Amino acid sequence: MRIKKQIISILLVLFISLFNINSVNAAFSKDCKKHLGKEFLSGYLESIPNELDFKLVDDKGLSPLVIKRDGAEDVKIDKVVLLRKNHFRIYAIKIIWDGEIITHCLNNDHFTLTAVLVEKHTHYNSATMTEIKTRRVSMHFHEGCGSPCYFSRVDVAYFGSDAPPNVRNEIKSDIYDYPNKWFTGYLTLQEVTKFMISEDFQEFEWSGRIYKTEKLIKKFKLK
Questions:
Q1: Fewer Cβ atoms within 10 A, N terminus or C terminus of the chain?
Q2: CB 202 within 8 A of CB 193
Q3: In this structure, is residue 119 part of a structural domain?
Q4: Higher confidence at residue 48 or residue 103?
Q5: Neighbours of 192 (CB within 10 A)
């Protein structure tokens, strides 16, 4: 069993290196490459996919809430899908900004992408002592770990630094922590109200206070 795992790990490394040969394939996040590698090695994918193999999802009901702050409207967010041999689907989020693309797989049946926050970001390059104006995309997930176990997770995509765009996990909560208090606490009151509407919360806690969603809907004229 241990040798089998070692062989799979080596094959995954080789698979990811094949992705990186092609600049189009390099548009996948590291976790997405690993997931596609496992699918390929398991025989569910007939060939190594590229970014163009993922097709746009037309059903808006399957798309998460997307909040774009001022100055970050130029970031495009698409939900895309790749069909497997057994007709199951691999969903992903494709993020496009300033000619750069990164695709992040939603590769677990037990978690759901519920919100995306897009904002301006300043990256400081310590080598050149310069600041680079970029974009940051935070993705908020509900993840199941059994019944009734659940928790929250936040993955963040960074653009425009001195390296290609990348995605990394920044927050993984304790169980039963949903929505993630750090994510919702970072939102403005109007933004968090939009999120609570999308998740059908009748009331919620924000910045130490309890708010009624219906009252905030009227205040911000959201319906």
A1: N
A2: no
A3: yes
A4: 103
A5: 24
